[in-house]
Specification:
Elements: E1 2-7, E2 23-27, H1 34-40, E3 50-53, E4 56-57, E5 73-77
Parallel strand pairs: 1-5
Antiparallel strand pairs: 1-2, 3-4, 3-5
Length: about 80
């Protein structure tokens, strides 16, 4: 099945070179977890801080269970620092 995968800020470097504006469409198996996608693209798990599926926050305890569906958008941001 196909989903849209988005990595923002410093995480964009982990996307393939053919990604357009930090977004790429990927093919995944129906039972793929968020952590499996993060690992496939070599994104350090501690750097994958804010994770959304279709704009809804994914709790850390849910990231190891299948929850993606055809056409979903998975977006990931690193931790934000500032003052």
């Amino acid at each position: 099945m196909k989903i849209t995968f988005k990595l923002f800020a410093s995480l964009a470097q982990y996307l393939p070179s053919d990604a357009v504006r930090n977004i790429i469409e990927i093919d995944i198996a129906p039972d793929t977890t968020v952590h499996e996608i993060i690992d496939r693209y070599h994104v350090p798990r501690p750097s994958a801080h804010l994770i959304l599926i279709n704009g809804l926050y994914v709790e850390p305890e849910d990231r190891d269970r299948p929850m993606l569906h055809e056409g979903d958008a998975l977006a990931i941001w690193p931790p934000v620092a500032g003052g």
